[in-house]
Amino acid sequence: MTPVLPAPAWNQPPRTLNSLAASDSLSMSDVALLSEATTSTLSRLWFDSAWLDKISGTTLQSLLAVIPGLMDYVSHRSRTRRIDNALRQCVDIGLEVSATTIDALVRQGSGIHVATALAAAASVVHGDHRSAYAKLTRCWGAQPDAALDALFNSGPEALLSDPASFVTHAARMVETNTGNENSLHRTVGSGILVHKLTKMEGAPPIATSHETPQRSSAFSYRSAAIGVILNSDDIAESVRYRSNLESSSLLQRNEIWSMASYSTDLIQTSDFSIPSTLSLSDTANIVLSDVNSRSEAYLHYLITAAIPAVLAHDPKFGHAKARLIEALELRIDHGISDRNALTACIALLKRIS
Question: Which residues have CB under 8 Å from 234's CB, separation 6+?
Fold first, then answer.
């Protein structure tokens, strides 16, 4: 298959300032008057389709204030260039990319995350592990997850026409992971690969243990455990994880850090710190959505591990405790077939009501 370039639906050709201004019936004289940019500067850029590469930051800011739609155009061009650069990195390393999937993800609002995910894939296959870990870390979160999942997908929604090479290199990268055990990029980047590979294959690509003194190992263990739960839909896996979580303060802290940083509640820092006053409102929203939609094995994990961890840190549950009670009652009403999950759900409801 011949590598394809991005679909025209989102990779629109660059436009001149003249074209952008004319869309709102503005002449160069109008823009010069309103923006106070010099005529000589505008005349140099006005008919140049590459004007965005040549304009100064000060002049751009003045034009953004007077040309309607310019902000959207600049944002679009920035995203397009990032995707183009990442796509070419993939093509250079031999990864064939689906323009159709890129287009679909862009339309879903994941354009910038597609660029990061593709660049990460290229670094993984190229063997540039340091760069790969850094880029993968930027993919940690609820918003980038769709693009990241598409990297490992082998179906019609796959980003890579044949992900086998990428998956093989990703597994090898995890197996040979060395260096600063607790560095942010290695911890999160390696953990992401462990999670995605485990969710895809059903078993972790490396041995992980809950009996660990290292933050990176705790993150990796959780990544594998959640991956197994999602793959197998086995309540026993959730029971095992909850039991190990209760016996380890490091795993408990890692549970909160993982959920809060996956949402927009916590900015990742190299010391993995968690402010004691942190409100977990976005984390709560993600949990509430999962309570409504996930499998019973994952529901059991939420009820016995995730939600208690959130409540221990933020007793108000991100100011959404009433919504949590409503969501749990609704899930019970819809029916929970597994006795362990149902019992745990009722117990949690009694505790928080």
Answer: 228, 297
Nearest to 20, CA basis, from 79, 80, 58, 60 = 60
DSSP-based three-state secondary structure for 84: helix
Burial class (CB in 10 A: 0-12, 13-18, 19+), 13: exposed
Buried b (16+ CB within 10 A) or exposed e, 143-178: ebbbbbbbbbbeeeebbbeebebbbebbbebbeebe
Task: Please report, in tens digits, the pLDDT of each residue of the chain (353 residues total).
Answer: 445 444 444 567 889 999 999 998 999 999 999 999 999 999 999 999 999 999 999 999 999 999 999 999 998 888 888 998 999 999 999 999 998 899 889 888 888 899 999 999 999 999 999 999 999 999 999 999 999 999 999 888 899 999 999 999 999 999 988 655 679 999 999 999 999 999 999 999 998 888 877 888 999 999 999 999 999 999 999 999 999 999 999 999 999 999 999 999 999 988 899 999 999 999 999 999 999 999 999 999 999 999 999 999 999 999 999 999 999 999 999 999 999 999 999 999 999 99
Give the total residue count for the chain. Answer: 353
Nearest 5°: phi and psi at 335?
Answer: 105, 125
Backbone angles phi, psi at 57, to 5 degrees: -60, -40
Encoded amino acid at 176, one letter: T
Spatial CB neighbours of 231, under 8 Å, sequence gap ≥ 6: 198, 199, 200, 201, 202
Cβ neighbours around 250 below 10 Å, total: 18
Strand, coil or helix: 160: strand
Quick check: pTM over 0.70? yes
d(CA 144, CA 149): 9
